[in-house]
Every structure is written in C-alpha cells, then in structure tokens.
C-alpha cells in the first residue's frame, strides 16, 4: 500500500492545477502531511508527471494563496475575533495558547526575519499568516517573506523525493516520507530549542554608572 503514491496519481490527472490545489489545501487541512506530499511530488517529477521547476512553482503558489487568504481574513475580521480564530486553529495543530502568545511577541520584535523562518517550522508555519495579519505585518514584507519561506520549504522536500528516487529507483513514497518525518522531528526539536532561546534571551543590562 502506498497512499501517497495514490494521491500523486490523482494530482497528476489535473496537472499544474492539481499541484496548485494541493499546495492550497495544505493551508486548510492540518492533517495533510505537507512534507510527505511534497516528497511524493518530487518522486513523480522523475517520472515526468511534471517538471521539477513546475512542481516547486505551482505548489508554492498554492500554499502562498492559502496563506494570503488567512492574512486578509484576519485583517478583515478584527483583532478580537482573530485572536479566537488563531487559538482555535492553533489547537487543531497542537499549539497551546501560551506558545501562540510567544509567537506573537516574537513576530512583533523580529517581524522581518521571522516571517521567513516561521515557514520552515512545522505547525508554526500554518499559523504564521494569521499571526502576520494580527500584528499586522507590512503587506509587502509578509508577501515577500512568506513566498521565500514557502519556496525554501517546498524545494527542500521536493528535491529530497526527486534525488532519492534517482539514487534508489523504485523507492516507495510512503517509506521515504516516514524517513523524512524522523529527520524532520529531530530538526524541529533543534529549531524549537533555538526559537525558545531567541525568544527568552534576556536583554543585556545597561552598564551601571560609576559612582564617585
């Protein structure tokens, strides 16, 4: 059984629109393992279902479009309702309100950098557009940083699938996705520790004046 392979067969029927649609769906269906789907898309690129550049471009466009909808939705409904929406969506992803609050504080302090970095952290990447709309982040900065972050994320996993199947022909997409998951969990732990250190790093105390 290879459910990811079956999903890719379905996507291939719709070509570039299928790639765009799966990128869009990733933003609204938290149970969809984006890394696994992207790995399988990379594997399918070897079989000429689509080119590698097309796979990256159209999945990135779909994912960004979903993120843009979330960003604009928050800007439209106002802060109070947006906070409730953010907490609700965070619960679906297993994120506590405390972690969401820390993410909000981090974005306010380091908006330019974290818009990009947040797209490289599982779970956090899905609430990042909501957070950016809530701050609110500058639209141009949000758009540019989000596209860059998504492109990096998608390119990484699509490339893993593409080059893995070249190295080991006939590799099962599900088996490869599981191996990527193990690596991803280890990487996420390291990133989470680095994020926590950056957020909680105490500010340097101002030097005391010498008393005469």
From TrEMBL:
PANTHER family associated with the record: ALKALINE PHOSPHATASE LIKE PROTEIN, UNDECAPRENYL PHOSPHATE TRANSPORTER A
TM segment ranges: 6-25, 32-50, 56-73, 112-135, 147-168, 174-198
Organism expressing this protein natively: Phyllobacterium ifriqiyense
Name used for this protein in its record: Membrane protein DedA with SNARE-associated domain
VTT domain residues: 32-162
Subcellular location: Cell membrane
Principal subcellular localisation of the protein: membrane
Alphabetized InterPro entries for the sequence: DedA_domain, VTT_dom
Membrane topology: Multi-pass membrane protein
UniProt entry keywords in alphabetical sequence: Cell membrane, Membrane, Transmembrane, Transmembrane helix
Keyword Amino-acid biosynthesis: no
């Amino acid at each position: 059984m290879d459910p990811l392979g079956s999903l890719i067969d379905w996507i291939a029927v719709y070509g570039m629109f299928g790639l765009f649609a799966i990128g869009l769906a990733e933003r609204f269906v938290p149970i969809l393992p984006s890394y696994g789907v992207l790995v399988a898309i990379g594997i399918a690129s070897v079989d000429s279902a689509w080119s590698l550049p097309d796979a990256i471009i159209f999945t990135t466009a779909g994912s960004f479009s979903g993120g843009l909808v979330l960003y604009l939705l928050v800007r439209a409904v106002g802060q109070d309702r947006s906070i409730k929406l953010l907490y609700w969506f965070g619960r679906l992803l297993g994120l506590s309100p405390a972690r969401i609050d820390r993410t909000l504080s981090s974005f306010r302090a380091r908006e330019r950098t974290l818009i990009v970095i947040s797209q490289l952290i599982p779970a956090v990447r899905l609430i990042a557009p909501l957070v950016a709309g809530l701050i609110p982040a500058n639209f141009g900065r949000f758009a540019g940083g989000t596209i860059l972050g998504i492109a990096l994320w998608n390119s990484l996993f699509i490339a893993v699938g593409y080059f893995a199947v070249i190295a080991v022909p006939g590799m099962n997409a599900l088996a490869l996705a599981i191996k990527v998951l193990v690596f991803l969990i280890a990487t996420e732990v390291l990133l989470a520790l680095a994020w926590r250190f950056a957020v909680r790093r105490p500010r340097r105390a101002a030097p005391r004046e010498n008393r005469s």
